[in-house]
Design brief:
By secondary structure, the protein is α/β, with parallel strands linked by helices. It has nine helices and five strands.
Length: 207
């Protein structure tokens, strides 16, 4: 049985760094956004196309109408954008399934908990922290003021939620979708990764 871990995360919660550190602690590969960009490029999808489709609202006509209404009648995406977004999602989903079938792995984001739901014993984790902690992180890393950092967090979380909710039919960040939710701000990247590692060892030991 392969050890498969998925990590959902709030923007600026440190989830990607936690995934990388967990990979080091457990000695198994971690596939994040950059890894999947490389995979998409192998399938002939340029980086800029992947980035346009990345974690944004998606492809159905009904969803487009809903977003048009939400945005005052102006749709954010055209028909071609919808097709491209679905194509990217399909490719990355198939690649995640292939990688999960081949061995132990960690996936960060990409609706991985839902994409891999047919696999046995997938550990689903969600990393979050307070808005205050995230704002401080963005201000420090991106050299933004507090107002700009808050806007960036709100916009990024909304995109991730729209993407996840649409493709999975579930609610992004809802604790019921995960085996473990953890506040990265209560510890740090190292401590958060260590707790997930300890939890994973017990989780995968249960037959």
């Amino acid at each position: 049985m392969h050890r498969i871990i998925t990590i959902g995360r709030q923007y600026a919660s440190g989830g990607s760094q936690v995934g990388s550190r967990l990979s080091e602690l457990m000695g198994i590969p971690c596939y994040d956004r950059e890894a999947l960009v490389a995979i998409a490029e192998k399938h002939g999808i340029p980086r800029e196309t992947f980035e346009k489709a990345d974690e944004q609202a998606t492809s159905s006509f009904l969803y487009s109408l809903a977003m048009s209404a939400y945005n005052g009648g102006i749709s954010a995406f055209g028909a071609n954008d919808h097709i491209i977004t679905d194509r990217v999602f399909s490719i990355q989903s198939e690649e995640m399934k292939r990688l999960a079938s081949e061995g132990d792995c960690i996936f960060v984001g990409r609706c991985a908990d839902d994409v891999l739901s047919s696999f046995d014993k997938v550990l689903n984790v969600f990393v979050y922290t307070s808005n205050e902690e995230r704002i401080k992180a963005i201000m420090r890393l991106d050299n933004l003021d507090e107002q700009a950092a808050r806007k960036l967090i709100n916009r990024s979380d909304k995109k991730r939620a729209s993407y996840y909710n649409f493709y999975t039919g579930k609610t992004w960040g809802d604790a019921k979708n995960y085996h473990l939710t953890i506040d990265s701000g209560a510890l740090d990247v190292e401590g958060t990764a260590q707790i997930i590692k300890d939890f994973a060892e017990m989780f995968f030991a249960i037959k």
